[in-house]
Amino acid sequence: METRRRASPVVAASVTVVALVTMALGYLNKARCAGPPFDDAGRSEVFDRIKDSAVCYSDIQFLWLGRGIDLHLFPYVGGAIAPDGSLTGGTVEYPVLSGMLMWLGGLASDTDADFLAWSAVLLAPFGALIAWMLGRLAGRVALIWSASPALVMYAFHNWELPVVATAVGAVAVMATRLPLRVRAVIAAVLLGIGFCLKLYPGAFVLPLAAYVLHGETERDRRDVRGALGVLAAAGITVAAINVPFAVAGYDGWRASFAFQSLRQADITTNSIWYWGVRYLFETPGATPEVSAADEAAFQSAVDLLSPTLVLLSFAGALWVGRRSLATVGSYPWVQTSAVMLTGFLLFHKVHSPQYTLWILPFFVLLRVPWQVVGAYLLTDVAVGVGVFRWFAALAAGQDARSEETLVVLGVWGRTVLLVILLVLFARADVRTPPVRSTRPRMHRLESEEVPV
């Protein structure tokens, strides 16, 4: 059985140490927004003053209030969603495992600064684990993850590190020497756990099942039972995690999904819908009543077009993966997963800055041009810094045109790169650590590739 060659533990350890240093810088950046004096609710008084202008805002610190975390409410069970769309009774807007992490981070916390610190303690091991796995899978190229500006900006911006760890963990498991069905079921369980953290890894179960169905070589027989086992493992995992919450408090559990479905493509979403499609629905010189009607028509169109295009991009990715069977010899599940994620980032109505952490591992795992990776990271910085500086200028009543221009350039530059990545990921080879020759001046050996 072919397995992917791995880099030495020394290389992986070095990459992990770099990630720990980078995350420490990330925490110090966010902690500038936290600290005494605090108000009666435990909110840092400095937070509202500098969170945007100093670019130290984090969802972690912001959500200390308004989700029952400061009250140590167990999530979902006693919650609901109000008619105005606000969440009550401990419900948060994320799937249940993210809600549990938030609750755990808040248990020993009395202020938002405590909550940020304890959340960082919970999340940092996942960031280090990602670095270790990527280091073993791809060698020093994993520094794209460990030394990335995105890890500084977003490691403790939201609760992304655990879900990224499940996606990378699935790839790492599939690179081991275990029997294919065993590997695939473990990977499917990890992806199911990822779904219960932030949803997106659940999409990767489909290409994983296709990989098992078609086998690792052209000589393998179609394994329908193995593919169904992958789908069942992921489904059972998702059900086992969600059903207890749904039974104990259905309204609170359902509210997290309802909240996301009701979210609009607005000034906070950094998407092509707000920065492009919206203008097609505006009537020049319109009265307030007409403008309100235009806005309602725009939001209705987004609610229809965004999920439709996401699903079409998923279907297209799976079809392209099937077409490549003849040349690759096995279903390219990692490449197809990357294309599916890219389609989601391109067409979803919300593109939060921290989503960059989702795509970073694919820059490590797949061979894409360095110029594209560098350009993507630059556009990410433009959006991640520009949008908060823009918010600060608007709040202060200042001229915000330069900040707005930076955001627009970042959003549309990233959009162009995502379109390019749809093609590059579909055609990419899986990256493996380089082979070092034991003799001087010998040609480098060819890398072993596992069919994925």
From TrEMBL:
Keywords: Cell membrane, Membrane, Transferase, Transmembrane, Transmembrane helix. Pfam families: GT87 (PF09594). The chain crosses the membrane at residues 7-28, 115-138, 159-178, 184-214, 226-247, 304-321, 333-350, 370-394, 406-426. It is a multi-pass membrane protein. It is found in: Cell membrane. Its main location: membrane. The keyword Transferase applies. Belongs to the glycosyltransferase 87 family. This is DUF2029 domain-containing protein. It comes from Rhodococcoides kroppenstedtii.
